[in-house]
């Protein structure tokens, strides 16, 4: 019995290994969800996303792609970033219970927050707390104090709004956000009935004290940038068995875990597929700098400007010019020849 389960284990491991080495999705994978193109390592069903990491499992419902069940995907790119929508958390003043919370907790699994997001609080006499749990626990937050409506042009600088950088440990399995109000709410509730805490990508939220203190202009979800990478090892550790395809290279993820792939310069496509990166024809896609398209010659990964014989490429103007040095030389030869000939003719005449 023991031997039996061991051999099953062995088969399982070699299968998993083969899948990881080949890193090839099925051919019939759904490539779009609504307006979003979904491609490998992300995918919509079994065999379509990178095996062994459910963080690449996209669910498509009503034309909306979601990652980790409920983070709606806006877009992502091959260099390891994904833009998604994350909901806000809320606390409202309530006469009876005093406070009414709508806190938020979620997991990011193998995705992580990029440094280009801020944890933000909107509200007066309130503070927001962010706590994460994992091998290391982490918490941070910010506080906003104001008894009356802040001036209309105020920035998110601690009066009606505050924000802070976040560096959540990679292994966190639970992230909680919680806005809280200071006890006596009577002074602010008429212009700021609720406070909100949320993550948002830099530049995607501009605080307006006139509009946001009521209900955040009805915005309930904000764009965030999440980082992703393949596995938890570096390129050096997976050399020879990374999933990067032909005409591509591996690079270590800047977040300090796993690797990503990119097409070589002059190639384009999906570097996570074995034959994803194909040569860019610079000549037909206006990416060349030859002065005349007709002289452009495509090469693998590059191009060159090919001049007709008798012409030379001027590398400053990238145009073909008459070869000024060779011509006098050639002419020189002809004159010499002609001279000889004429002298011969002359000689014969003389003779
Ligand atoms: C796709 O984009 C179009 C145009 O931007 C928009 O009208 C439509 O609602 C979008 N569809 C989905 C499913 O998001
Ligand atoms: C992908 O995630 C959804 C939602 O969590 C789940 O129902 C589905 O089974 C997952 N797909 C696979 C192939 O595991
Ligand atoms: C895509 O990749 C570039 C780096 O090549 C990065 O600057 C950009 O912010 C990325 N993210 C998204 C969501 O497009
Ligand atoms: C993190 O917080 C949880 C819950 O409060 C606690 O059980 C755990 O011991 C903490 N871990 C560390 C490393 O402090
Ligand atoms: C709450 O604030 C109001 C107005 O600032 C003040 O009149 C009231 O005494 C305060 N109540 C408590 C319990 O501090
Ligand atoms: C916020 O303001 C900046 C600078 O004025 C602008 O570039 C950016 O587009 C604005 N963002 C939003 C979401 O309105
Ligand atoms: C927010 O929603 C309310 C109720 O639906 C509506 O009256 C109000 O105009 C909306 N505000 C904005 C800024 O869209
Ligand atoms: C995260 O990636 C590791 C491999 O690096 C994998 O073993 C693990 O199952 C992944 N976690 C989830 C929740 O998918
Ligand atoms: C990578 O993830 C696997 C599975 O989760 C784990 O067993 C291994 O220790 C991790 N390796 C590193 C270098 O973190
Ligand atoms: C590399 O690019 C060339 C030119 O597009 C293509 O012919 C070749 O098949 C590519 N290699 C792989 C492994 O995809
Ligand atoms: C290239 O063209 C520029 C501008 O016409 C000219 O100044 C330069 O001398 C040329 N260079 C050569 C090597 O002919
Ligand atoms: C033309 O493009 C090539 C390749 O991109 C580059 O090396 C070269 O410097 C460019 N020359 C000029 C004059 O722009």
TrEMBL record:
PANTHER family according to UniProt: OSJNBA0016N04.9 PROTEIN (PTHR33491)
Q: What is its main location?
A: membrane
The protein's topology relative to the membrane is: Single-pass membrane protein
SS bonds (residue pairs) = 244-261
The UniProt keywords, alphabetically, are: Disulfide bond, EGF-like domain, Membrane, Phosphoprotein, Signal, Transmembrane, Transmembrane helix
| EGF-like domain sequence ranges | 231-278, 279-317
CC per GO annotation: membrane
Give GO MF terms, alphabetically: calcium ion binding; polysaccharide binding
- According to the record, the signal peptide region is 1-23
Q: What is this protein called?
A: EGF-like domain-containing protein
* UniProt source species: Arabidopsis arenosa (Sand rock-cress)
Query: Which SMART domains has this protein been placed in?
Result: EGF, EGF_CA
């Amino acid at each position: 019995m023991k031997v039996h389960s061991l051999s099953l284990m062995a088969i399982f491991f070699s299968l998993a290994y083969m899948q990881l080495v080949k890193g090839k999705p099925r051919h019939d994978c759904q490539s779009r969800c609504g307006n979003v193109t979904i491609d490998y390592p992300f995918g919509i069903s079994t065999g379509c996303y990178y095996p062994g990491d459910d963080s690449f499992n996209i669910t498509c419902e009503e034309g909306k792609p979601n990652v980790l069940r409920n983070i709606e995907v806006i877009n992502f790119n091959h260099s390891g970033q994904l833009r998604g929508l994350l909901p806000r958390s809320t606390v409202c003043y309530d006469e009876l219970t005093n406070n009414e919370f709508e806190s938020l907790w979620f997991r990011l699994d193998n995705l992580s927050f990029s440094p280009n997001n801020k944890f933000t609080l909107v509200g007066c006499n309130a503070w927001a707390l962010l706590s994460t749990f994992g091998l290391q626990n982490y918490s941070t937050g910010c506080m906003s104090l104001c008894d009356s409506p802040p001036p209309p042009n105020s920035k998110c600088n601690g009066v009606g709004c505050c924000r802070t950088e976040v560096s959540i440990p990679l292994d966190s399995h639970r992230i909680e956000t919680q806005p809280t109000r200071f006890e006596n709410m009577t002074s602010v509730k008429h212009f700021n009935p609720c406070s909100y805490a949320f993550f948002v990508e830099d530049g995607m939220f501009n605080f307006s004290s006139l509009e946001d203190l009521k209900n955040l202009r009805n915005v309930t979800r904000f764009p965030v940038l999440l980082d992703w990478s393949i596995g938890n090892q570096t390129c050096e550790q997976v050399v020879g068995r990374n999933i990067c395809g032909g005409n591509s290279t591996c690079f270590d993820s800047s977040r300090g875990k796993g690797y990503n792939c990119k097409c070589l310069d002059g190639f384009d496509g999906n570097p996570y597929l074995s034959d994803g990166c194909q040569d860019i024809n610079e000549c037909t896609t206006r990416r060349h700098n030859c002065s005349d398209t007709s002289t452009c010659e495509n090469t693998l990964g590059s191009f060159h400007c090919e001049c007709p014989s008798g012409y030379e490429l001027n590398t400053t103007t990238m145009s073909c010019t008459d070869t000024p040095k060779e011509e006098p030389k050639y002419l020189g030869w002809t004159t010499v020849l002609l001279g000889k000939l004429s002298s011969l003719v002359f000689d014969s005449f003389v003779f």
